[in-house]
Amino acid sequence: MRHFSYVKFLSGIVAVFVCGSTAGFPAQAQTSPASPAVSTQSANTLDSLFADLKRERDDRQAKRISERIWAKWRDSGSATANLLMQWADKAVSDKKNGLALDLLDQVVVLMPDYAEGWNRRATLNYAMGRHAKSMSDISRVLALEPRHFGAISGMAAILAASGNDELEMRAWEQVLEIYPANRQAQTRLGELADKLAGSRI
Predict the structure, then answer these.
(1) Using one digit for the tens of pLDDT, what is the confidence trace for 121-158?
(2) 12 burial class (0-12, 13-18, 19+ CB within 10 angstroms)?
(3) How far apart, in Å, are the Cα atoms of 101 and each of 14, 26, 128?
(4) Which of helix, strand or coil describes residue 27?
(5) Neighbouring C-alpha atoms within 13 Å toward the C-beta of 69
């Protein structure tokens, strides 16, 4: 139950962050969550990988497990969506962010239950400095895949940029709930703990 209470907490962060800033957002970013378009078999495989990730304390072994999770997340199950994602990656590498955004818009319209499409768009929006739009996409990712440590890390980065130390700390704590060997989360959590302790002296 703790896992889902964190999901509600993180959703609350998104709501507070984007409140009053959603005018002009893509309509699909505000639709109600739908069930993930994932087969029972692949969900069970992901469950197994997440169980392994939670048990693993060696950072190199954990990274290998996380890469297998990312590989499953990246595969939409649709040749068209996968191709659009590849084109979007190429556009980003060519510094054609507008084109990449158009391609990712097509992905989320084509497959609104594909969490990684929303996550990739959240990442691009963050890179373009559009933090409220990125948070809106992150909200959609977490509605579809609450264990998406990449999306939660992105949320933490946005909270860091806006100076919300305590909320950023809570986000990194959630990353470690899912992925205990994550070095980035461990390091940043230690830095924030020291900073907040110092501010209270």
Answers:
(1) 999 999 999 999 999 999 999 999 999 999 999 999 99
(2) exposed
(3) 21, 12, 10
(4) helix
(5) 23
Angle (CA) 140 9 32, round 5° = 30
d(CA 134, CA 17): 10
> For the whole model, what pTM was predicted?
0.79
Contact 188, 176 (CB under 8 A): no
What distance in Å separates the CA atoms of residue 38 and residue 46, rounded to the nearest whole number? 10
Q: How far apart are CA 104 and CA 98, in angstroms?
A: 10
Give the DSSP letter of residue 101. Answer: H
Residue 152, Ramachandran bin (φ over 0: left; ψ between -120 and 50: alpha; else beta): alpha
Select from 114, 135, 139 the least CA-distant residue to 42. 114
Positive or negative, the Cα torsion across 28, 32, 35, 36?
Answer: positive
Does residue 129 sit in helix, strand or coil? Answer: coil
Copy the structure tokens of residue 115. 């969490």
Token pair of 118, please? 């929303």
What's the pLDDT band for 9 if we cut at 50, 70, 90? low
